[in-house]
Prior knowledge:
It is a single chain. By secondary structure, this protein is α/β, with parallel strands linked by helices. It has 35 helices and 19 strands. A five-stranded parallel beta sheet has the order 10-13-16-4-17. The longest helix has 24 residues, at 2-25. The radius of gyration is 35 Å and the shape is elongated.
Amino acid sequence: MGSESKGVRARLKALSDGLQTGFKEKKRVMSFAEYLEFAAANPRRQLRSSPQFAKDCFDFWGTEDVAYAWGTQRRFRLFDCPWSERGDQLLGQEGVQNQVYRALSNFVNEGAANKLMLLHGPNGSAKSTLVRCIGRALQAYSERDEGALYRFNWIFPKQKLSRADIGFSGADGTLVDPSESYAHLPDELIDAKFVDELRDHPLLLLPLDERREFMGDCLGTIAEEKKGSGRFVVADYLQHGQLSHRNRGIFEALLASYKGDFLRVLRHVQVERFFISHRYREGYVTVEPQLSVDAHERQVTQDNSISALPPALQSLALFYYGGELVTGNRGLIEYSDLLKRPLEAFKYLLTTVEQSSVSLQNATLYLDLCFIGTSNEIHLSAFKEIPEFQSFKGRVELIRVPYLLEISQEERIYEAKLSEAARSRHVAPHCAYVTALWAVMTRVRKPHAGQYPKEIADVIDKLGPLEKAELYGFGTPPPGLTTAQRQALKANLADLRSESESHPIYEGLTGASPRELQTVLFNAANSSSYDYVSPLAILEELEELCKQVSVYDFLKQEPHAGGFHDHKALIGKVRGRLLNRIKEEFQRAMGLVEDAEYRRLFDRYILHVTHFTKGEKLPNANTGNSEPADERMMSQVEKTLGIEGDAKEFRHSLISKIGAWSLDHRNTKPIFEEIFADHFATLRDAYFQEHEKAVGVAVSNFLMYVSDAADSLDDEDRAQAKSILEKLTSDFGYQEDSARDMIRVLARERYSK
């Protein structure tokens, strides 16, 4: 027992020593003189405002380029929450991320956050998630040395110390001259401590002229360190700002008491590091819709607990400041669902945002804040109709946050929700995929084909919601296009993706919300029809959802030509894509795709066509002798491709296409699947059509194997069925019951005739 006790004590001692060391290393507490030296040594970090701090936070976590079918976007890694294993990251929305970063950059260059960034979009488009990621990133950044933030407190020692000439013990146990600073006094030697809830910047304690001179020296240091990287803009908050009403009152009273001795005033200043925290309402707060200005004051010198203040301060009317604007100062304030408030409740934001200040009964508070808000489109549209909107327009930076239109990103949302909904139940493959595919198809709009070049306008006009969703998500063009049409469609894909961005009814404004589909997933996870989470159960729940027309606005849309907004019919398209995936997995489990005979055949065909057009022979793989190109093999492939007319001319056209592709892709080996996508697809379909009968037999045998009829199979068929089941479970994530159910549906809908 004694040894265990010693072990615990040793552990606690080590913990205490570590915390104490960290406290000192992080410079948690300093005198004003110590802070001034620290600021001079780190001017780039200590002269920044809240917009600069937020922008630096974006930069600190870094960026990466994300490739989509329609183009590349810069993504800020802070939205992946790299400091946490909890997840909660923002999926997609790189365009919105860059708009927020651009707004912050503009605030930095202008010297003030003079606009409220208003994120607007449909319900469930991740507006709050985006703000939460920024807030959590600010929290994590403030805990790093690169993100150190400082405030100051007023320290009033016991009267006997302030009058005595003897030294007193500091935090490190050494004697400190009381004429130096009270910053490191232990608590038992302090009569009163005023913590500044507004978190005024310590440099505001310097008179304006001296402050500007100090910052001028710092700017010279920054310019020397950051040559060629652009000038550093000191924010108006530090250029022209003043202490809060209470801090100014204490400062002036002490200055008068000490007959103008500025250094004796500063010895009462304790500079303290603070950390942004949403939980403890420190530099990051969320304001819910309510009916009052988000700041207030309360007199503190009427409180008997302040009786220990020096006589010079007891006669002052000192006020405590509270409210969201105060607790959020030096950081970020979020107005959640801002426009749900009555107009009168947020009119004060006009002057607050424009002037970075808010007026109370006895004081005006000067703020250093990033303002961000959220609103759905319905409330924003109503707000735009009122006369006061014109006044607000110049103080608001509108940033649109639409629903995601990329299947893979949407799929990741539902994968996380499925893990939560399933608990210990098995989740069959493709559950998230079918949900995401249907969701994206409900959001896409019929394109305006007339604004595209003639050679592609007809193709774009024929795009349906499925084709459009797969174009955005995977870059997969519709079947049956020529190579020229595929290339033209790819060239215009970015324009197609951004076609409606300037329209009031933009793509991604309407459709199924992830919140609504979360209910679908939870209902499917609790389905009594399956002992696991099945994509078939999700399809059934989607059908139930489509019946609730009176509940969901997007279901009230009239179907358009091409199948757009025909939400019930879209479920059938999802089902078709699901069966395609199941069938492909089954074929791969059989070993058909791994063999990839059609791929090798096409490569061999192109090799022989190349030598044919050059009039060259090529070595026979078996004999090693040089022989002419295999005319019989080439003719068979061309027959399969449906080529009619002059074979020689067709073969020359193939080589010309390879040459043209190579000019655009120098130092890259030709990718036949891309160059001859249409021919390749035809050959692939022919290959699988040739094996379709064998697949049908294997499907039937498999269902017998996983049922009570396994004994009726011969040894070879039983071995094949067993192998298929093993690969479906090991390679594709099925269990026996989910594999059985999926293949049973495949057999019924694709092989029952």
